[in-house]
Amino acid sequence: MRPKQDVIVEDGIIYVLKAGTKVYHKTADICAMTGKSNQWVGQLTSQGTIHKSNTPHGALYELASTMKGYCALLESRADEPEDEEVVKSEKERIKAETGIKKAKAIVALLEAQELQGKMHRSDDVANMTSDLIDTMRGMLQAMPGRLAVDTAAASSASEASTLIRREVHRIMKEIASYQYDPRKYEERVRERRSWSDKDEGDADE
Asked: Smallest Cα–Cα separation from 147: which of 132, 169, 131, 178?
């Protein structure tokens, strides 16, 4: 009967069959196991985290103790408290990015509503109101010229008053017939956007 062996080597592969058997490796093997560079493994060795052992085949890393030291290093780093300033800075960065994204979403929504005529900017409303007031002012300023001849030819103050009242009613009727026209607001929006696009193009140049 073939005696049981602790280690068997077959076709270039080593089988360790007894728990606790010491296995020694070169630096290249430790790099492959950890996924780290040769310099990184050397740094851990100089720091005393892992150790090389003197063997008849040179200074090598004993696998069990090396992996134990490496795992202890990972655990210690996982338990280290995060730097408060770094955490605070990261939270502020995330908060700022979230705020910017929300602001952009709101602007996009308002622009869409504006183009659809569902919402108007206060300056557009003010400008349209100013245009209406200018029209009313023009009508009122033209009234004396329109009535001068007729009132001068009136036979009495009562007749002159009737002429003036009739003209005032005509102006009031024209003002009352003023209707909201979404197309005028849309023209202002598109005109403003064309200016904005042109300004951005000039800035890029």
From this structure: 169
pLDDT, tens digit (0-9, with 9 covering 90-100), for 52-100: 999 999 999 999 999 999 898 888 877 666 567 767 777 888 888 888 8
Sign of CA pseudo-dihedral 141, 143, 148, 151: negative
Q: Using CA atoms, how far apart are residues 101 and 182, in angstroms rounded to an integer?
A: 30
Higher pLDDT, 23 or 189: 23
Which residue ranges make up each domain of the chain? 7-79, 86-119, 120-204
Residues contacting 146, CB < 8 A, separation 6+: 167
**d(Cα 11, Cα 98) in Å, to the nearest integer?**
59
Under 8 Å between Cβ of 33 and 52: no
Whether pTM > 0.85 for this model: the answer is: no
The CA distance from 175 to 94, in Å, is 54
Q: Kindly report the CATH class assigned to 7-79.
A: mainly alpha
Question: Which H or E element spans position 13?
Answer: strand 13-16
Render the burial of 76-104: b for 16+ CB within 10 Å, e for the rest.
eeeeeeeeeeeeeeeeeeeeeeeeeeeee
